[in-house]
Amino acid sequence: MRRLMMTGMVIVIPDAGLESVPAAVARVLLGGKLNRYRGFLPGIFEEALLTLEHQRPLYLLGGFGGATEILARALLATGDERPAEFTAAWHEKNTPEVTKLIALAGQFTRPAEVRATPAALDALFAFIQQGRGKVANTLRTGLDEQETQELLITRDLTRAVQLVRKGLENQVGLQALPA
């Protein structure tokens, strides 16, 4: 589903024909589980990775906690340090189901578009390293660096919405609806 959101899809509706669902032009992330999730990695991490790979605007509301806050902190960090949450070992320790899933997946041929946990985390951390010091460009927010960093840490929902709207107006030409 997350991959299809980035590419768009056509759905066959019995007795009604085809319905086209366009690709997402941007993604806004907030919260998210960091443990006890279902899958090879947290959904927020997967959504961020897919959005970055498709070079679409990504708005991280990190001030509200969860996996999004971990992404925001990692982007705002300096140096080359890799936070533990971006390692397979951390996920295997904190979400035992991941270890079981990895073992089960090893018994089957995984679809090409489904990456193993270590490979997905490596790819996501590569974007984080690229983004350190130039977060606005990496996330393609349409905001300046200071505004993007503010978005990553604000706990003010009104301000977060203002920043996302401004970024979407600048980046994808989103126009506000008349009041």
Structure in words:
- The structure is a single chain.
- α2 (43-53) packs across α6, α4 crosses α5 and α8 (145-153) runs antiparallel to α9.
- The protein has one domain (27-171).
- The model has no long low-confidence stretch (mean pLDDT 90).
- The chain is mainly alpha-helical and 179 residues long.
- It is globular, with a radius of gyration of 18 Å.
- The strands form 2 sheets. A two-stranded antiparallel ribbon has the order 1-2. Strands 3-4 form a two-stranded parallel sheet.
- β1 (9-13) and β2 (17-21) form a beta hairpin.
- It is built from 9 helices and 4 strands.
- It has helices spanning 2-7, 43-53, 66-76, 88-94, 96-105, 117-131, 135-139, 145-153, 157-172; strands at 9-13, 17-21, 27-30, 58-61.
Précis, in short:
The protein has nine helices and four strands.
